[in-house]
Amino acid sequence: MKFREPLGEWPVYYVGHAEPITLPRYIKGLKTVTNRGNLWPQDADLLRLTGPYNELGLSSTDTLKIGEVEISKRDFSSVNIISMINESMEGTADEGDDVGAHIRVDVKGGIGGHEAHYVYTLATDMNDCTGFSASYAAQAIATGKITEKGIFPPEGLPDPTPLFKYLAGKDINIYETKTLESLLEI
Asked: Which residues pair with 118 in a beta bridge?
C-alpha cells in the first residue's frame, strides 16, 4: 500500500480494530470496512513475538506476582513484546529519520454517476495524534462543544471538522486526494 513519504510502499495485513464495527453505525450505506497495519521494520513478525506468550497463558488479565509487585499477565507480556520491538528497530532507520505512524484511509463509492475514490493520508507521531485527540475531546466536552452523553468513537462526532482543525494547529495534517471516473456509457 502507498503511504506518504518517507515511508512510501509498505506491506499491510489485516488487524483487529474497532472501525469495521463502528464506522457502519455512523456512515449510512457503507458496505465494506477493513483495517490493516504493519510494524517497523517491515520484517517485524508480531505473531512470532506474541505466540509464545499466548502459548504460556500470558495473554490473560489474571495477575502475576513478580517480587512484591502484582501485574496482569497481559501487561507483563505487552511490556516485554514492546521491548523486543524496540530492540529490533535499533539501527533500522538512518539517524534522524522520523518513521512515525503513517495512516491511509481509502473511501470508494459513487457520486453523481461517477466512481469516486478519496484517499486520506497522515504521517505523524502516534502518541501526539492520540494525546491531542483526547485533549480536544476533553476540552470540547468541558466547553459544551460536545454535548452527547455516553461513549462513542471519533466517527460518532456530529462534525469532525473542528477536531481536524485542532489537530492541524498541532501540526498534524490530514491530506485528501480525490479521483472521479465517469460511470456513464458514451
From this structure: 107, 178
pTM comes to: 0.63
Radius of gyration of the chain (CA): 20
Q: For all residues of the chain together, what is the average pLDDT?
A: 81
- Contact assessment for residue 175 and residue 106, using Cβ atoms and an 8 Å cutoff: no
Max mean pLDDT among 10-14, 40-44, 99-103, 114-118 falls in 114-118
Strand (E) or helix (H) holding 15: none
Contact 6, 101 (CB under 8 A): no
Residue 60: Cβ within 10 Å count? 12
Q: Cα–Cα distance between 170 and 128 in angstroms, integer?
A: 9
- Please give the Cα distance from 159 to 145 (Å, whole number): 10
